[in-house]
């Protein structure tokens, strides 16, 4: 009876506080769980199932992983009292990166803590139906669609597309595979051999204050290594799913880039010649629940160092961008992909198209997943303006030069400076 009452209290801790508090409470109960026989008589299968239902809602959403997790959870329940708490803690905590421990000094600097949560308006991005680009459509409808793409890139720097050619089944499969790989124990992810070395990233190593810390983890995968087979066992369900996703998204990125070039007055083959599948990147992101969402970003404000980014996100929300000098929240659309202009396109268009700041806010109780494709050129590609209606705003620069400057600034200042570094002196 005592154990059942205690477990009800445990439910409360799990629902309304956090995993750490629940574990501490369980450690107080452990003296009552002295033998396997005690477990069998005091903890019914029903109660075990109730515990697992709450526990699994926090650590896993994939059906197969949940079944395996439930078996592991029951093994932990039937363990001796000394091992139960440690087993439970390993199950619940190990998948998240050790943000608190690693950035301990930042959290201790209370003077630097800021409240980052400011109420912002939620709005829908301009919505483009890519079916209107079909050759079966009248020419005037195709041109109208292209004009909308260009206008959104000028006025927003962001837009969303529907009827993009990626099935809902593929997007769901991509998410399921993402969940599986991110739900591995943290130490496994740091050694993950399905991707090239250095692909797994988390936090912000250069952060000097909490506002520079990103409460997120990611696998950032160069498509050159992906196509080459990478290292380790790359022929997996995840890699084949990623390949299907990346191939389709690459086609969308090329089509949109050519439209934007055309609207500048160029029938340019620049993107097909310089932005090859092997020069682009795919990034799978996870934003774990954050116990201090008012103080830490999921991803700190930034612009993208590419031509175009194509993003698929779940329905949790959290993406925000700057429009007309103020932050706005992007309303998730389950049918859409989000497109945003990167720094290279802004320079290449001589500021016609806008690379705008965006960020991801943290959530105290729900994790967020997204996948981004970055349309990038080869490192030696030279970026120079292709809009002849006004003098160039930026000097010529190569992509590797831009990347190196960004890295130097991040190391020095804790944040990216970006395009202002490449403005001509007269501007």
Automatic annotation (TrEMBL):
UniProt GO molecular function: gibberellin 2-beta-dioxygenase activity; metal ion binding
Keywords from the UniProt entry: Dioxygenase, Iron, Metal-binding, Oxidoreductase
Keyword Ribonucleoprotein: no
Coiled-coil boundaries: none
Catalytic reactions on record: gibberellin A1 + 2-oxoglutarate + O2 = gibberellin A8 + succinate + CO2
Domain Fe2OG dioxygenase intervals: 278-377
Assigned EC number: 1.14.11.13
Group of enzyme by EC: oxidoreductase
GO BP annotations listed: gibberellin metabolic process
Family assignment from sequence similarity: Belongs to the iron/ascorbate-dependent oxidoreductase family. GA2OX subfamily.
Official protein name in the record: gibberellin 2beta-dioxygenase
Originating species: Acer negundo (Box elder)
């Amino acid at each position: 009876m005592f154990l059942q009452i205690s477990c009800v209290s445990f439910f409360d801790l799990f629902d309304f506080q956090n995993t750490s508090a629940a574990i501490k409470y369980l450690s107080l109960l452990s003296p009552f769980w002295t033998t396997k026989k005690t477990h069998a008589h005091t903890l019914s299968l029903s109660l075990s199932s109730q515990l697992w239902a709450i526990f699994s809602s926090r650590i896993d959403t994939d059906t197969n992983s949940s079944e395996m997790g439930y078996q592991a959870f029951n093994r932990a329940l039937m363990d001796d009292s000394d091992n139960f708490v440690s087993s439970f803690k390993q199950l619940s905590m190990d998948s998240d990166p050790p943000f608190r421990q690693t950035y301990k000094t930042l959290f201790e600097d209370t003077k630097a803590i800021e409240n980052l949560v400011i109420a912002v308006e939620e709005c829908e991005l301009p919505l483009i139906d890519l079916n209107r680009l079909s050759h079966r459509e009248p020419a005037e409808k195709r041109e109208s669609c292209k004009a909308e793409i260009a206008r959104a890139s000028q006025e927003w720097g962001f837009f969303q597309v529907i009827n993009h050619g990626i099935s809902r089944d593929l997007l769901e499969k991509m998410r399921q595979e993402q969940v599986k790989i991110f739900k591995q124990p943290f130490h496994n992810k740091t050694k993950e051999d399905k991707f090239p070395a250095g692909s797994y990233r988390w936090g912000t190593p250069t952060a000097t204050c909490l506002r520079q810390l990103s409460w997120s983890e990611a696998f950032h995968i160069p498509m050159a290594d992906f196509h080459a087979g990478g290292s380790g066992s790359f022929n997996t369900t995840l890699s084949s799913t990623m390949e299907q996703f990346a191939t389709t998204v690459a086609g969308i990125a090329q089509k949109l880039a050519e439209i934007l070039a055309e609207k500048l007055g160029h029938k340019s083959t620049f993107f097909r010649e310089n932005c090859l599948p092997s020069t682009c990147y795919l990034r799978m992101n996870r934003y774990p629940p954050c116990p201090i969402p008012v103080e830490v970003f999921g991803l700190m404000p930034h612009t993208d160092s590419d031509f175009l980014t194509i993003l698929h996100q779940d329905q949790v929300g959290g993406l925000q961008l700057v429009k007309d000098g103020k932050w706005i929240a992007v309303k998730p659309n389950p049918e859409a992909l989000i497109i945003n202009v990167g720094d290279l396109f802004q320079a290449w268009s001589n500021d016609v198209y806008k690379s705008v700041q965006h960020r991801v806010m943290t959530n105290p109780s729900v994790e967020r997943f997204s996948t981004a494709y970055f349309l990038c050129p080869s490192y030696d590609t030279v970026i120079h303006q292709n809009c002849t209606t006004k003098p160039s705003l930026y000097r010529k620069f190569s992509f590797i030069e831009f990347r190196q400057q960004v890295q130097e600034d991040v190391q020095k200042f804790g944040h990216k400076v970006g395009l202002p570094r490449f403005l001509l002196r007269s501007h």
